[in-house]
Design goal:
By secondary structure, the protein is an alpha/beta fold. The protein folds into two domains: about 200 residues, inorganic pyrophosphatase (n-terminal core) (Alpha-Beta Complex); about 120 residues, Roll (Diaminopimelate Epimerase, Chain A, domain 1). Helix content is about 40%, strand content about 15%. A six-stranded parallel β-sheet has the order 3-2-1-4-5-6, with helices on both faces. Helix 6 crosses helix 8.
């Protein structure tokens, strides 16, 4: 964050504010870690804040300190709307376009509050009074650490803040293995450990607590995997029927898409997940090397994200979505090389 933006934020936070913090729809570890970490920091400044999540988030994140106070816009609609109506300052974290908030979008567009965006995805929209965007950062949680540093308050990071931020960094870097993980990322993680983040306990709570149904669903996903050797591509499909048969819970498919990239000579991996309630096929894209899944998702599947990790959606049937996807690969054959 540059000094000019930091000065603006300091001025805003020097007076009492009605603050609301917003993650994106279907919030992940980075979204919830950054929101909760920021909330704990604001509390130390004497600022009260409310986190309003567009919808529910995975059980494996609900142990995070402060999670019990998060308002779910779908379930706590009246309280959430009241918080938004009274907001004088709104932080939007881990997304850079209001469309990423689902049903919350219209409420945010109607707000008269000042907005502060903190995000690391490509091509941010211009809606905030302060936009802190850095696509080179591993995660929004790393950015929250740098945000606190820019405000000259790094010494205020306690065990609760450190735990939340470490969780988001760990999950968004794939346990520090993705390309966006830098030497700075490791230095920030080390500092968070020194300030109270228990890396062993965090990893166990996020990754090592599986339900039998989730493991059974993983088995279904791997059985459904299709490998297209000529395009160095692997994809997985999961229908609503298969999800229901495995007693699917939000977050159960987290990380499934990455299995395709563990196969020799595969550089492009995708998972297609049917959601009949929303009438869409939810898509996650991952890649290794220079192939930009952000550009692919933006061009063809109403999505976007990072060079090596992006999301998208299709309103076609599963069969039609797969047909469309496979037909596109020939146009990218030159890029899909090992």
């Amino acid at each position: 964050m540059n000094s000019t933006d930091a000065a603006v934020v300091k001025t805003l936070l020097d007076k009492p504010q009605n603050i609301v913090i917003i993650p994106h729809k279907n919030p992940d570890g980075d979204a919830m870690g950054s929101c909760l970490g920021l909330q704990h920091y604001l509390k130390l400044l004497g600022q009260e804040s409310t986190i309003v999540a567009p919808n529910d988030y995975p059980k494996f994140l609900k142990w995070l300190p402060g999670s019990e106070s998060v308002l779910n816009f779908e379930l706590d609609n009246t309280k959430a709307k009241k918080a938004l109506e009274n907001a004088s300052l709104i932080f939007t974290l881990d997304f850079n376009d209001l469309s990423r908030t689902g049903q919350l979008e219209s409420n945010l567009k109607e707000s008269n509050a000042d907005f502060i965006m903190i995000d690391h995805h490509q091509q941010p929209s211009d809606y905030a009074k302060v936009t802190y965007s850095d696509v080179g950062m591993s995660s929004t949680c790393e950015m929250i650490y740098k945000f606190i540093e820019a405000l000259g308050r790094i010494g205020m990071i306690d065990a609760q803040i450190a735990t939340c931020l470490y969780t988001g960094i760990m999950t968004d870097t794939g346990s520090f293995k993705f390309a966006a993980t830098t030497s700075q990322t490791h230095r920030v993680a080390a500092e968070l450990m020194e300030r109270g983040a228990d890396h062993v306990a965090i990893h166990q709570k996020v990754f090592d607590t599986n339900s039998p149904s989730r493991l059974q669903l993983l088995g279904v996903a791997l059985k459904n995997m299709v490998i297209l050797e000529n395009h160095h591509t692997a994809y997985i499909t999961l229908t609503q029927e298969e999800l229901d048969a495995s007693n699917f819970k939000k977050g159960d498919t987290e990380g499934f898409v990455n299995y395709g990239l563990t196969i020799e000579n595969i550089i492009f991996a995708v998972i297609f997940i049917e959601n009949k309630e929303e009438g869409i096929i939810k898509i996650s894209f991952r890649s290794i090397g220079d192939f930009s899944v952000n550009e692919f998702a933006r061009a063809h599947f109403n999505g976007g994200g990072h060079t090596n990790a992006a999301g998208g959606r299709s309103e076609l049937s599963m069969a039609a979505t797969i047909k469309k996807f496979e037909s596109l690969l020939n146009d990218y054959k030159a890029q899909l090389t090992t």
